Amino acid sequence: MWDSPNPRLTIVRSAEVWNGHDLVMSLIGELDADTAPAVCEATVSVMSNGGRRILVDLSGVTLCDNASLYTLLGVRHALSHAGGELTLISPSEAVRLALLRTGLRELLPMGLRAEGRLTRGNVE
């Protein structure tokens, strides 16, 4: 687990490696303009240790604003430029609504966990 400077968001690093990803990161709590920088810091930490493929579980996100989605988009671009990828899975209702509100659904594609593997999917 990373220490977040904001107690409204917990970032849990899983020891599990999933489908070739270097890290599985679960976000729990509120994802907004105040807490999103902690996600950037965690990503920089992973990248500085050589990690390039990050899977982010969003099932525990209780609040999601537009700024946080644009932050995730920036993280995705940074990883892409470094030869990696960001895969988001299990979006909570708050995340799904924010994706629809911002129109970022196509730019932040979701993966789905299914029978021990990761597949690409759409979020309705």
Give the tags.
124 residues, alpha/beta, Transcription Regulator spoIIAA, 6 strands
* Straight-line N-to-C gap: 30 Å
What top-tier CATH class fits best? Alpha Beta
Query: How many strand elements?
Result: 6
Low-confidence stretches: none
* Strand portion: 25-35%
Percent of residues in helices: 25-40%
Q: Secondary-structure element sequence? A: EEHEHEHEE
Largest sheet: 6 strands, mixed
CATH homologous superfamily name? STAS domain
Counted by DSSP, the helix tally is: 3
Overall 3D form: globular
Output the CATH topology.
Transcription Regulator spoIIAA
Written account of the structure:
This protein is an alpha/beta fold and 124 residues long. It has a single domain, classed as 2-Layer Sandwich (Transcription Regulator spoIIAA), CATH 3.30.750. It has three helices and six strands; from the N terminus they run E-E-H-E-H-E-H-E-E. The protein has helices at 36-48, 66-81, 93-102, and strands at 9-14, 23-31, 53-64, 85-89, 110-114, 117-121. Strands 1-2-3-4-5-6 form a six-stranded mixed β-sheet. Strand 3 (53-64), helix 2 and strand 4 (85-89) form a beta-alpha-beta unit. Helix 1 packs parallel to helix 2 (66-81). It is globular and about 35 Å long. The protein starts with 8 loop residues before the first strand and ends with a strand. The model has no long low-confidence stretch (mean pLDDT 84).
